From TrEMBL:
One of its GO terms (biological process) is proteolysis. PANTHER family: CYTOSOLIC CARBOXYPEPTIDASE, CYTOSOLIC CARBOXYPEPTIDASE 1. Belongs to the peptidase M14 family. The keyword Protease applies. The active site is at 329 (proton donor/acceptor). GO terms for molecular function: metallocarboxypeptidase activity; zinc ion binding. SMART domains: Zn_pept (SM00631). The lineage of its organism: Bacteria, Pseudomonadati, Pseudomonadota, Gammaproteobacteria, Alteromonadales. This is Carboxypeptidase family protein.
C-alpha cells in the first residue's frame, strides 16, 4: 500500500506478532513503518519490532508512542515501549481492520488532491518541474504575481519522506495563503511571491522510506553537488531557484528524538553575518510570540563558524543566495511544552503551526529585516 513498510516475521498469535522495518532502498536506514492488521477485533495484541535497535535514530524510540487509526482520518496514540532493542506496541484492538504508523501518513492520493485543489485558485500557477526516478511529477505551486517590489519566498517540505508532519504543515500554509478572508495570507501576498513544493520526495513517500529517494539518496545531503541521475528532485528545484532567486527559505521537517518545535538556522556558513543573525533572531522571536507551540531553548547544536555542511538544503541556500534560510523541525513524539496524551503531535497541530510561521514572516517583513 502507499507508504507501506513492514516485514512480518511471525503472526500466528495476537500476543506475539513479530515484525521488522524494511530499510530504505540501497541504504541501512530504517525507522518509518506503516501497515494494517486484520481480523484482530477484541483481542489484546502485542507487536514486537525486532530490529528497532538498529533504526536510524534509536533514541527516537524513547518516550515514543506509535499512532493507530480505524478510519485513516483520526490517528491516536497507543501504548508503546522500547526495551532491549525492541519496540513493543500493546493495544486492545476494537475492529477487524486497524492501521499502525510511525506518524500519521500523508498519501500520494491526498497530495494529488491538494495540488488539484490549489490549482483551481486563480492566485495559483501550477508547474511540473520535471520527473522523479519513478516517473512522478515534481509539483511546484507559485502563489502571487512577481513584481520588483515583492520578496521571493520558497517553502519546501518532506525532503525526508517519513517526516509526514511536514506535508500536514503544508496544508495549513496553503490554506492560510489561499483564504481570501485570512488577513495574514492577504498581507503576505501584497509583499511576497511564494514558490511552494509540498512534497520534495514523492518516490520515497510512496515507497515507505524514512529519509531517501528512489536511488537511496538523502536529498537533504545533496544540495551542493546535486545531479539529475541521483537527486533529480533537488536538481530541478535548484534549477528553478536560479531563475527566481530566493529572499526567504523555509525547509519543513520532523525530528525523531526531540519533543519540541524548533528552528535550525545556518549560523555556521562561511558568509554568516550580523545581518543574517538579526534576521534569524527576529524570525524566531516573532514565532515564539505568535504561538506557545514554539520554543527556542531546545534544538540542534549551532555549527562553529565556517563549519556548516553545505550539502544541507538550508545551509546551501543561505550561502548561495545570501538570504534568511531555516529548517523548521516538528516532533514525531509530542510537544513537551503542550502535551496531548491522546494524540501527541498530530496532523492537526502540524497544520495549525503553519499560520504562526507565516505570521512570523509577516512580522519580519514589517521590521524590515528582509
Amino acid at each position: 500500500m502507499d507508504s507501506g513498510n513492514i516485514d512480518v516475521i511471525a503472526c500466528d498469535s495476537a500476543d506475539n506478532i513479530r515484525l521488522n522495518i524494511r530499510n530504505d532502498l540501497n541504504t541501512q536506514k530504517h525507522q518509518w513503518f506503516h501497515f494494517s492488521l486484520h481480523n484482530a477485533a477484541n483481542q489484546q495484541c502485542q507487536l514486537l519490532f525486532e530490529n528497532a535497535g538498529t533504526a536510524a535514530y534509536p533514541s527516537g524510540w524513547q518516550d515514543y508512542r506509535a499512532v493507530a487509526s480505524y478510519d485513516r482520518e483520526t490517528w491516536f496514540r497507543v501504548d508503546t515501549s522500547y526495551q532491549d532493542g525492541q519496540l513493543v506496541i500493546n493495544h486492545l484492538v476494537e475492529e477487524n481492520l486497524i492501521y499502525f504508523a510511525y506518524f500519521a501518513p500523508y498519501s500520494s492520493e491526498r497530495h494529488r488532491d491538494l495540488i488539484a485543489a490549489c490549482q483551481a485558485d486563480d492566485k495559483v500557477n501550477y508547474l511540473a518541474l520535471g520527473q522523479t526516478i519513478d516517473g512522478q511529477s515534481m509539483d511546484l505551486l507559485q502563489i502571487g504575481q512577481v513584481s520588483d517590489d515583492k520578496k521571493i519566498c520558497w517553502l519546501i517540505a518532506r525532503q525526508h519522506p517519513g517526516e509526514t508532519m511536514a506535508q500536514w504543515w503544508m496544508e495549513g500554509a496553503l490554506a492560510t495563503l489561499l483564504d481570501d478572508s485570512n488577513a495574514i495570507g492577504q498581507a503576505l501576498l501584497q509583499q511576497c511571491v511564494f514558490y511552494i513544493v509540498p512534497n520534495m520526495n514523492p518516490d520515497g513517500s510512496r515507497r515507505g522510506h524514512l529519509r531517501h529517494n528512489a536511488t537511496g539518496t538523502d536529498l537533504n545531503r545533496a544540495w551542493r553537488n546535486t545531479s539529475i541521475d541521483n537527486s533529480p528532485e533537488v536538481y530541478l528545484v535548484r534549477q528553478k531557484m536560479e531563475q527566481t532567486g530566493v529572499d526567504f527559505f523555509l525547509d519543513v521537517h520532523g525530528d525523531e528524538g526531540l519533543p519540541y518545535n524548533f528552528i535550525a538556522g545556518a549560523e555556521g556558513i562561511p558568509n554568516w553575518s550580523n545581518t543574517r543573525q538579526a534576521q534569524l533572531d527576529g524570525y524566531k522571536v516573532a514565532l515564539a510570540q505568535a504561538t506557545p507551540e514554539f520554543q527556542t531553548q531546545f534544538g540542534y547544536p549551532i555549527d562553529e563558524p565556517g563549519k556548516a555542511n553545505l550539502d544541507v538544503g538550508s545551509n546551501f541556500i543561505a550561502q548561495h543566495f545570501g538570504c534568511l534560510s531555516m529548517t523548521l523541525e516538528m516532533p514525531f513524539k509530542d510537544n513537551s511544552e503542550m502535551p496531548s496524551p491522546l494524540y501527541g503531535w498530530s496532523p492537526e497541530r502540524s497544520s495549525a503551526l503553519a499560520q504562526p510561521c507565516l505570521l512570523a514572516l509577516l512580522r519580519t517583513l514589517e521590521q524590515q529585516l528582509l
